[in-house]
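== Folding the chain ==

***
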Amino acid sequence: MTTDVGGLRKNTPEPLTVVKAEQSLGARLAAFVSGGLVRVFLIVVGLFWLVPTIGVLLSSLRSPGDIGASGWWEVFSKPSQLTFDNYDKLLSNSDITDSILNTVLITVPATVLVVVIGSLAGYAFAWMEFPGRDWWFLAVVGLLVVPVQVALIPIAELFGDIGIFGSLTGVILFHVGFGLPFAVFLLRNFFAEIPRELLEAARLDGAGELRLFFRVVMPLGGPAIAALGIFQFLWVWNDMLVALIFTDADSQPITVALQTQVRQFGNNVDVLAPGAFISMVIPLVVFFAFQRQFVSGVMAGAVK
C-alpha cells in the first residue's frame, strides 16, 4: 500500500490477514478421542469389566437362601441381605484357608525367582560377551513356543523320580522353568536399549559387572521388571492346570481347592462365593497397586 507523507511516497506493508486453516480429518478425530465422551465410554467399559467381581462380592455377602432365591442385584433393593457370616464359615474351612496359604507360598517364590534370574540372564545376553551368546538367546526364544501341555507328563515323571512330585517345590520349579524364557526375552530387549555410553562410563569408574547391574541397570529397568513381575504373579496365581496335576491334597492352591469344593459339595455357595472373591481380588489389588509401573514397562522402548 502506497501513501503520501509530506509529498513523499511511502510504501507501508499490507495488513496481515489471518486465515484459519481447516482442521484435517485426523486432527478432528484426535480432538474427539481426547474429549469427554470417549472418557465416559471408557469408564462404562471399565465398570462392565468389574461386573463379575462385583457380583461375586455381593454374592459372598448374602446367605445361601438369598443366593438361591434371587440374583445378587437384589442387594441394591434389599441391603439387609448383606452379612459376613459366609466369611466366618470360610475362615473355619481348613481346606480353603490352607489353599490360600499354599497359593501365596507358590506364587511369591515363583515370581521372585523368575524376576531375579530373568534379570541376570537378560543383562548377560544384552551386554556381556561369551561364546555362543546369540545362539543361546535364540534357543531361549525358541522355548517360548513350547506348549505347557507338552511338558506335563515328562516333567511329572521327572519330579516323581527325584521325589518332589505333589509338593510345593515341584509346582514352583515348573512355573519358574516356563516363566524364564519370556522373562529373559523381555528384559534382554529392554536392557539392550540402555545407552552404551552410560555403561562404559560406569566401567571407567571401576564398576564391576555385578555393581554395574545393581547400581545402573536395575534402577533403569524398574518399569520392565515391574511389568514382568505383575505378569508372572497373575499367571501363577490364576493357574489351575499345572496345580491340578503337580499338587496333592496338602499342597493344592485356591484354584484347585475351589474346584474340589464344587465337585464334592455343589450347594455350599456360602463357602465358594467368598473363596472365589478372595481368589479374584488379590490379583486385582496387585495389578492396580502397580499399574503405573506396569504401563511404563509395557510402553518401554515405544518412544525414543
Q: What stands out?
A: The beta strands are 2-5, 8-11. The first helix runs from residue 25 to 33.
